[in-house]
Design brief:
The structure holds two protein chains of two kinds. Chain A is α+β, with helices and mostly antiparallel strands. Helix content of chain A is 50%, strand content 21%. Chain A has one domain: Beta-Lactamase (2-Layer Sandwich), CATH 3.30.450.60. Chain A is built from five helices and seven strands. In chain A, the strands form two sheets. Chain A has a five-stranded antiparallel β-sheet with strand order 2-1-5-4-3, sandwiched between helices. In chain A, strands 6-7 form a two-stranded antiparallel sheet. In chain A, a hairpin with a 2-residue loop joins strand 6 and strand 7. Among the domains of chain B are: 127 residues; 140 residues, Leucine-rich Repeat Variant (Alpha Horseshoe); 99 residues, no CATH class. Chain B contains 40 helices and eleven strands. In chain B, strand 10 and strand 11 form a beta hairpin. The chains are: A alpha+beta, B mainly alpha. Chains A and B meet through strand 3 and helix 2 of A and helix 10, helix 12, helix 14, helix 17 and helix 19 of B. Chain A: Belongs to the adaptor complexes small subunit family. Chain A: Keywords: Cytoplasmic vesicle, Golgi apparatus, Membrane, Protein transport, Transport. Chain A: This is AP complex subunit sigma. Chain A: It is found in: Cytoplasmic vesicle membrane; Golgi apparatus.
Chain lengths: 163, 952
C-alpha cells in the first residue's frame, strides 16, 4: 500500500503531504525533512527508487520519486507495490493536475491545495490505488467543480435576498 | 485520528436504533442509551476544560462500577463500551475497560461482538499485552460460518495485530479461484477490456500487476496450480512490448512470478532473457529492477549471475549509490569461501563512503553476517583478516549498529569452534590487535567497540606472553579516566579490570582505581569500585569467583537460596525473628491495629542452641524462606500466564505455518544437471577471459580479474550454501553446548562463596576456606571417595545387623581411610581444630554420587552429645534427593535408628512423590536419603527429622 504522498519544492518547502498511516505532527515534519534530505542530494540521472528512510517505518519501505522542474513528487510505498507502477502513477497524477489546472505550475499547487487533494482522493484512497484513468478522474473533478459553483451560487443568492 | 472519530460516530446511531424496539426491559435499556446521549449533551454544553474533566471523571467512576459489577448484562456492557470509547476519545484514561471490551468481543452476540471488536480496535495497539487474550477469539471467529463474524475478525486483525502475528499469505484456501484469476488476466492481456481502461495503449496495467502478484502467491510450491498459469504467463511476456515504463512493470512482475511458481524450463529461459534486458538497459530504473530480479533469482539459478558478471562489475562502480548498494546486496547473496575477501572489501569500501545511518546499519549488519556465517563454516581465510574486518565494522558501524552484532561476535569468540588451539589463536590475535589499537593516541572509538575490547581484554589477556596483566590494566585505567567515554562503557572497563586483578602481581593501579572510583558521583561506578575493593581484599576468593576462561560455563543458580539455610538457622538460634512474607506482615499489622492485645508480655525466646525449645512455626517459617524466594522469583514477571495455552502464535508469527515454510526452504531442488552446466559455463567463461586478456586494455583486465575473484566458486558445490542463505539477516551463531555437567557443581559452590563472603557471621571466613578447600579438592580429583556401593542395603533389619559389624570394623580402619584421602589438604586454623574434625567427617559423608550433581551444602540440622544429623539436597536430572546423615560422635554403639515421616500441613507423603527411602551405614555415620520426582520438596521434612532426633 501507499504510506505517504509528499510534494515539496526544490528548497524543501512542503506543498502537499498526505499520510495514509497515523503519524504525529512532529513525525510527519521529520519524515518530510528526511525525505527531502534523501532526495535532494541525488543527481538527475540516477534511478528514481530509494530504500530506507528510518522514520516512516520498517525497512521494506520504498521511496519512489519524480522531479519536475521545481517540484519533487515523492511516494512512500511498502513492498506490495510495484516500483514502476507507482512511477507511472506519479506521471498520471501530474498529467491530471496539468489537465485540471491547464498548464499546472507550482503556484497552482500552493493556492489550490484543496483541489490537489481532491484530485488525489480520486486516485488514491486509504493507501490503495483507486483510479488510474486520467479521463475518468478529470470528469469527476469537473463535476465537483460544477457542484461547487452551484453551491457557491446558493448562499450568494440568500445573501442577496436578505439585503 | 479523524477516521477513528468518524468510525465511532457512525457506530453511535446504530446503537441508538438497536435499542428503540423492544418490550418490557426497554426502559432499562433506554436509560442506558440516553445516558450516552446525556453525556454527549452534557459535554457539549460545558464551558470550561475543568468542568469537562469533572464530568468525565464522574462518568468514568460510575462506568468502572458498572463494568465490574457481576450483574451487568452484555447489553449493558455494550452501552458502557460506547461511553468508554467516547471518554477515551476525549483523552481520558479508560484502561480499566479494556479487558471488558475483549470479553465482550468473546462472548457477545453479533452486535455486541461488533461493539466489542470496535472498542478493542480503538483501545489497544499492536504491542499491547492484552492483545494476546484476543487471539483465540479472533481465530475462532475467522473459522466461523457466519460471514459477518469472519469480516469483523479480519477487520480487527488488519487494524491492530502486529504483522508477524498474521499468518502471511496463506493462499491454500483460495486455490479454486486460480482459474478465475487466470481467465481475468487472459481477457485483460487479450485486450478484451474497453479502451477506457487503457493506459498508453496498455490494457489496465495496474490490474495486470495485481493479478500477476496474486498468481504468484497461488502457484508457489504447487505444481498443479502452476501448470494452469504457464500459458497466460507466456502470453503476458509476449504481449508486453517494450515501449513504455508500465510494460516494464508488468514484465518485472511476470518474471518474478515465473521464478516464484513451480518452474517450467521454457518460461524460465524467457524470463532469464527478460532479466538480461533489464540489467543491460541504459535506463537506470530498469537496471535497478534488473539487479533486484537477479538478486531474487540468483538463489535458484546462479548461472544467471555468471552470464551478467561484467554488468554487475560495472554496476559496482556506478555513480548512483543506490545501484551500488543493490549490487552489493546481490554479491552478499553469492558470498562463499573463495570470494568472501573481495566481496567484504567492496562492502567496506562502500561503507566508508556512505553517511546515511540507514545504509550503515544495514550494511554493517550484512558484513557481520557474512563474516560470522562464513567463519562458523570455517570460510574465513585467516584469523587476522577476520579480526581486522570486524574492527573495521565496529569502527564504522559504531553505535548505530544492531546490538546483536557485538554480542554475537563475543559469543563466537567465547564459544569457539571445534579446534581449541585455533580458538586460542583467534582470541590471542584479538587481544593483540585491540592492545595495538588502544596504543594509538587521539583516536576515538565508538562505545560499542570499546565495550567489545574491554570484554575481550578482560577474558583473554591471560593468553598474552609479553604483556603482563598490569600493563593491560594500565591501559584500561587510562580509558577509564577518559571523559569522552560513557558510563556504560566504563562499567565494562571496570569489569575487565576486576577480571584481570587476580592475575596481576602488583596492584598499585587497581588500588588507585579503587581510590578514584569509590568516591565517584556515579552510583553505578561507585558500587563496582566497592565490589572490586572487597574482592581485592580476599584474593583467594576472587580467583575462585572469577576463574580464567570460564565465560562459557553455565552458572547454576540455586534459586531456593538453600545455601543460606545454615545462616538462617544460626540467626534464628541467636534469637532473630523468623521471616514472614510481606503479605503476612501486613495482615498481622492490620489485625494488630484493630484488635486489642490481651496476651501478657511473653518471655524472650533466646534459648541457646538450635535444639532449644523453639516453636515449630519459627523453624518452618525459617525454612520457608527458600520456598518464598523461589516463588517471588517466579512472580517477578508480572505478566500474563501463558502455560498450557496452545502455542499457535509466536514472536515469529503463526507457528505451524512457519515451520512448514522453513521445511520447504531447506528442501534441495533438483540441482545435479544444472550444476554440471554451471561448471561448464564457469570454465567456458574463464577460458574466454584468458583468451581475451591479451587484447584488452588494462582497466578491462582489472575488471576481469575482479569478476573472476567475485564469481569464483559459484559452481556446484556451493549451490546449497547459496540456497541456505535466502533470508540470512537474522542468522545466529551456531550454539555449541560446552556445558559439562561435572562442573556445574563447582559453579554452585562458587556461587555460594560469593554469597557467604558478604554475610556478616563471624565464622564465615572459616566456612569460605572450607568450601574453597573442598572445591580445590574436587577440581584436582584427588579427593577419592569411599566406595560405598557395597554398603548400600535394602532393608532396615539387614542394616541393623551390619551396623554392629561395621562399627567395630570402622573404629580401626578410620585413621587409615583419612590418610588415603589426602585429608591433609585441609589447613584449618588451629583454634577451630575441634570443629574441623566434625567438618571432615561431614565432608566425607557426602555420598559419592552426589558430587556429580548440583547439591546444596551440608547443613547440620540438629545435634546432641552423641549424634548429629545433617542434611543436604541434590538436584538430579529427574528428581530431588534429600540426604540425611546421622553421625555418631560418642563412639558408643548405635543400637537402632528410626525414621518416621509424618504427613504434615506443608508436606504430605504421597504415593509417587517419594520413590523410596534408602539408607546405609558407614563407620559411625548413618545416611538416609530418598528420591522424589518433585524437585521442590519442602524443607518441612528437615523439621520433622529434627523432631525425631530430639525425641530419641
Amino acid at each position: 500500500m501507499i504510506k505517504a504522498i509528499l510534494i515539496f519544492s526544490n528548497q524543501g518547502k512542503p506543498w502537499l503531504s498526505k499520510f495514509y498511516q497515523p503519524y504525529s505532527e512532529d513525525t510527519q515534519q521529520q519524515i518530510i525533512g528526511e525525505t527531502f534530505h534523501l532526495v535532494s542530494k541525488r543527481d538527475e540521472n540516477v534511478c528514481n527508487f530509494l530504500e530506507g528512510g528510518l522514520l516512516i517505518g520498517r525497512s521494506d519501505n520504498k521511496l519512489i520519486y519524480r522531479h519536475y522542474a521545481t517540484l519533487y513528487f515523492v511516494f512512500y510505498v511498502d513492498s506490495s507495490e510495484s516500483e514502476l507502477g507507482i512511477f507511472d502513477l506519479i506521471q498520471v497524477f501530474v498529467e491530471t493536475l496539468d489537465k485540471c489546472f491547464e498548464n499546472v505550475c507550482e503556484l497552482d499547487l500552493i493556492f489550490h491545495v484543496d483541489k490537489v487533494h481532491n484530485i488525489l482522493v480520486e486516485m488514491v484512497m486509504g493507501g490503495m490505488v483507486l483510479e488510474t484513468n486520467m479521463n475518468e478522474i478529470v470528469t469527476q473533478i469537473d463535476t465537483q467543480n460544477k457542484l461547487e459553483k452551484s453551491e457557491y451560487l446558493i448562499p450568494h443568492f440568500d445573501n442577496h435576498d436578505r439585503e | 485520528m479523524s477516521d477513528i472519530v468518524e468510525k465511532t460516530l457512525t457506530a453511535l446511531p446504530g446503537l441508538f436504533l438497536q435499542n428503540q424496539p423492544g418490550g418490557g426491559p426497554a426502559a432499562a435499556k433506554s436509560s442506558f442509551s440516553s445516558r450516552l446521549g446525556s453525556l454527549v449533551r452534557g459535554i457539549t454544553a460545558l464551558t470550561s476544560k475543568h468542568e469537562e474533566e469533572k464530568l468525565i471523571q464522574q462518568e468514568l467512576s460510575s462506568l468502572k462500577a458498572t463494568v465490574s459489577a457481576p450483574t451487568t448484562t452484555l447489553k449493558m456492557m455494550k452501552e458502557c463500551m460506547v461511553r468508554l470509547i467516547y471518554c477515551e476519545m476525549l483523552g481520558y484514561d479508560a484502561s480499566f475497560g479494556y479487558i471488558h471490551a475483549i470479553k465482550l468481543a468473546q462472548q457477545g452476540n453479533l452486535l455486541e461482538k461488533r461493539v466489542g471488536y470496535l472498542a478493542v480496535s480503538l483501545f489497544l495497539h499492536e504491542s499491547h499485552e492484552l492483545l494476546l487474550l484476543l487471539v483465540n477469539t479472533v481465530v475462532k471467529d475467522l473459522q466461523s460460518t457466519n460471514l459477518v463474524e469472519v469480516c469483523m475478525a479480519l477487520t480487527v486483525v488488519s487494524q491492530i495485530f502486529p504483522r508477524e502475528m498474521i499468518p502471511a499469505e496463506n493462499s491454500s484456501g483460495y486455490k479454486d479461484l486460480t482459474g478465475s484469476f487466470i481467465t481475468i488476466l487472459k481477457q485483460v492481456v487479450g485486450g478484451k477490456l474497453p479502451v477506457d481502461f487503457n493506459y498508453h495503449s496498455v490494457p489496465a496495467p495496474w490490474l495486470q500487476i495485481q493479478l500477476l502478484r496474486i498468481l504468484r502467491l497461488l502457484g508457489k510450491d504447487d505444481q498443479r496450480t502452476s501448470e494452469l498459469m504457464y500459458d497466460v504467463l507466456d502470453e503476458s511476456l509476449r504481449r508486453a512490448e517494450l515501449n513504455h515504463n508500465v510494460t516494464y512493470a508488468i514484465l518485472f512482475e511476470c518474471v518474478h512470478t515465473i521464478y516464484s511458481i513451480y518452474p517450467k524450463s521454457e518460461l524460465l529461459e524467457k524470463a532469464a532473457k527478460c532479466i538480461g534486458k533489464f540489467v543491460l538497459s541504459p535506463k537506470i530504473n530498469l537496471k535497478y529492477l534488473g539487479l533486484k530480479a537477479l538478486t531474487y533469482v540468483i538463489q535458484q539459478d546462479p548461472t544467471l549471475a555468471l552470464q551478467h558478471q561484467m554488468t554487475i562489475i560495472e554496476c559496482l562502480d556506478h555513480p548512483d549509490p543506490i545501484i551500488k548498494r543493490e549490487t552489493l546486496e546481490l554479491l552478499y547473496r553469492i558470498t562463499n569461501a573463495q570470494n568472501i575477501t573481495v566481496i567484504v572489501q567492496k562492502m567496506l569500501e562502500y561503507l566508508h563512503q556512505s553517511k546515511e545511518e540507514y545504509v550503515i546499519v544495514n550494511l554493517v549488519g550484512k558484513i557481520a553476517d557474512v563474516l560470522v556465517l562464513n567463519t562458523v563454516d570455517t570460510y574465513a581465510p585467516d584469523n587476522a583478516w577476520f579480526i581486522q574486518t570486524m574492527n573495521a565494522v565496529f569502527s564504522v558501524g559504531g553505535d548505530v549498529m544492531h546490538p546483536d552484532i557485538p554480542n554475537n561476535f563475543l559469543r563466537l569468540l567465547a564459544e569457539g569452534f571445534d579446534d581449541e588451539t585455533e580458538d586460542q589463536q583467534l582470541r590471542l590475535y584479538a587481544v593483540q590487535s585491540y592492545l595495538t589499537l588502544l596504543d594509538v593516541e587521539n583516536v576515538f572509538y565508538p562505545q560499542r567497540f570499546l565495550q567489545v575490547m574491554s570484554w575481550v581484554l578482560g577474558e583473554y589477556s591471560y593468553l598474552l606472553d609479553k604483556e603482563t596483566p598490569e600493563e593491560v590494566i594500565t591501559k584500561l585505567y587510562k580509558l577509564l579516566m577518559n571523559d569522552s567515554i560513557s558510563s556504560e562503557t566504563k562499567t565494562w572497563l571496570i569489569a575487565a579490570v576486576t577480571k584481570l586483578t587476580p592475575q596481576a602481581r602488583s596492584s598499585n593501579i587497581v588500588e588507585r582505581l579503587i581510590q578514584e572510583f569509590t568516591i565517584s558521583l556515579d552510583t553505578c561506578m561507585r558500587q563496582h569500585a566497592f565490589e572490586l575493593k572487597h574482592l581485592h581484599e580476599n584474593v583467594e576468593l576472587m580467583k575462585n569467583l572469577l576463574p580464567v576462561d570460564k565465560s562459557c560455563e553455565d552458572i547454576v543458580v540455586d534459586a531456593s537460596l538453600s545455601f543460606l539455610d545454615g545462616f538462617v538457622a544460626e540467626g534464628l538460634s541467636q534469637g532473630a525473628a523468623p521471616y514472614k512474607p510481606h503479605h503476612q506482615r501486613q495482615e498481622e499489622k492490620l489485625s494488630q491495629e484493630k484488635v486489642l492485645n490481651f496476651e501478657p508480655y511473653g518471655l524472650s525466646f533466646s534459648s541457646p542452641g538450635f535444639t532449644g525449645r523453639q516453636s515449630p512455626a519459627g523453624i518452618s517459617l525459617g525454612s520457608d524462606i527458600s520456598g518464598n524466594s523461589a516463588e517471588t522469583g517466579l512472580k517477578e514477571t508480572n505478566s500474563l500466564k501463558l502455560e498450557g495455552v496452545k502455542k499457535l502464535w509466536g514472536k515469529e508469527g503463526y507457528l505451524p505455518k512457519k515451520e512448514s515454510k522453513t521445511g520447504d526452504e531447506s528442501e534441495t531442488p533438483p540441482i545435479p544437471q544444472e550444476s554440471t552446466i554451471m561448471e561448464n559455463v564457469d570454465q567456458a567463461i574463464t577460458k574466454k577471459d584468458q583468451s581475451q586478456v591479451l587484447t584488452q586494455s588494462k582497466e578491462e583486465k582489472e575488471k576481469q580479474l575482479l569478476a573472476s575473484s567475485l564469481f569464483v566458486g559459484l559452481g556446484s558445490d556451493n549451490t546449497i550454501s547459496l540456497l541456505g542463505k535466502a533470508d540470512t539477516v537474522s542468522h545466529k551463531f551456531r550454539k555449541k553446548s560446552k556445558v559439562k555437567e561435572t562442573k556445574s557443581g563447582e559453579m554452585t559452590s562458587i556461587h555460594n562463596i560469593t554469597c557467604s563472603s558478604f554475610s556478616s557471621l563471624s565464622n564465615v571466613a572459616y566456612e569460605g576456606d572450607y568450601y574453597l578447600n573442598t572445591l580445590q579438592d574436587r577440581r584436582d580429583k584427588e579427593f577419592k571417595k569411599f566406595s560405598l556401593n557395597s554398603e548400600l542395603l535394602d532393608s532396615e533389619s539387614l542394616a541393623e545387623l551390619h551396623l554392629v559389624e561395621k562399627l567395630s570394623n570402622c573404629s580401626l580402619s578410620t585413621p587409615s581411610l583419612f590418610d588415603d584421602n589426602n585429608m591433609e589438604i585441609f589447613h584449618p586454623p588451629q583454634s577451630t581444630a575441634a570443629s574441623v574434625a566434625k567438618e571432615i567427617s561431614l565432608a566425607s559423608s557426602l555420598l559419592e554420587e552426589t558430587t556429580e550433581y548440583i547439591h546444596s551444602n551440608l547443613i547440620e540440622v540438629c545435634n546432641n552429645e552423641t549424634v548429629s544429623v545433617s542434611s543436604y539436597k541434590i538436584w538430579k536430572d529427574d528428581c530431588l534427593l534429600m540426604v540425611w546423615s546421622v553421625t555418631n560422635k560418642s563412639g558408643l554403639e548405635l543400637k537402632s535408628a528410626n525414621l518416621e515421616i509424618f504427613p504434615a500441613e506443608n508436606f504430605k507423603v504421597r504415593q509417587g512423590c517419594l520413590d523410596g527411602i534408602h539408607h546405609f551405614f558407614h563407620s559411625d555415620v548413618l545416611a538416609l536419603w530418598f528420591r522424589s520426582s518433585c524437585s521442590t520438596l519442602p524443607d518441612y521434612l528437615l523439621y520433622q527429622c529434627q523432631k525425631v532426633m530430639e525425641g530419641s
